[in-house]
Write a structure and sequence with these properties.
The chain is of the alpha/beta class. The protein has two domains: 278 residues, QueA-like, CATH 3.40.1780; 100 residues, no CATH class. Helices cover 24% and strands 28% of the residues. It contains ten helices and 19 strands. The strands form three sheets. Strands 2-1-19-18-15-3-13-14-17-16 form a ten-stranded mixed sheet. The radius of gyration is 22 Å and the shape is globular.
Amino acid sequence: MQNHPKHIRIDDYSYELPESSIAIYPLENRDESKLLNYKKGDINHYHFRQLPELIANDSLMVLNNTKVFHARLIFSKPSGGMIEIFCLSPHDPIEHSNNFASKAFCTWHCYVGNAKKWKNGLLEVAFQVNNTTYTCQAEMIEKLSDSYLVKFSWNAPDLCFLDLTEILGKLPIPPYLERDAELIDELRYQTVFAEKTGSVAAPTASLHFTQNVFDELAQKNIGLCHLTLHVGAGTFKPVTAKTIEGHQMHHETIEVTIESLTQIAKALSSKKPIICVGTTSMRTIESIYWHALNVYHHPEKLGEIHIEQWTPYEKTVNITPLELIQNLIHKMSIAELKVIRGTTGILIAPGYSFVIVNALITNFHQPQSTLLLLIAAITGENWKLIYEAALKNQYRFLSYGDSSLLWIN
């Protein structure tokens, strides 16, 4: 049983973040960002292109291969007013790839700007493809507790929903940038290895990587393990409760292949360091561990990944991580499953004991956020020294900001 973080006061995880320290635009070159290395209490400063120097030969690096899509869609009311619909997660079909491939119609969970002005009726927007005019309509199906269920339908027979978002949508850059998406964002608010479409926010720790960095990692025989967590808008959700007990974590879709699990098992078996790139990769790997524990005790739940925020704090484990991952691989092989999917709302905060990961590459996060709690789970109270050092050395913060390599105490 791990120490329960529910009584943590979020006020204890605050710091003063000057507006001048927030990166509004990306640097000219991705790997020119600064890199703070924290290990055993020591803090040292590098540039991201030097990352391979800090990673031991034969380590395993875990990356999130999700891709950001144009999730912000603008529609017109019959009266002429504008309504923005922000696509959050697919409802029907429920799987991202199937939903994006839908033709004619599909349904999404969405945020709706100016929702009070959309009282009834269909919203519509016209667009042209090859000099032919088509229309897309949006119908509000249901108001949910924290979002809306919206059905989209369109009369362009050759277009799938992903095509439609590319034509009509806007890139959903972080709201705190307080600017509209620009051409530079289309390129730079996306990782160089983005593959699986579904995120409404980038896995920003990966934005620093270039092919040159990957080439140098390869020279040291550092393996690359890819998995998927589709980042939701909840990543920007502030903690408004006084204690973490009152905060409800958002759930995000995860996907891990048997090949990636085999890479992780091999690294665990050989005791090679496993470095997660980004909090999304870390949350996915740790969630897979808890799913593996569930499958160990309940084999029938193999294909039902569903991790709640308090799951890690409610279980006692007497089985090694390697045994659990190997058992999960074995069960998948028997069932001829090449990939497992599901959702996670895992909360990693002080009191959490890491079971798979040895280090995290991540940017610098907002005060009083669950991401900052995750940093504190890795570094303890030294998170304050790390952030003080970053501010003192003029690091750039948040999504387009600089990076850190944090080794778990």
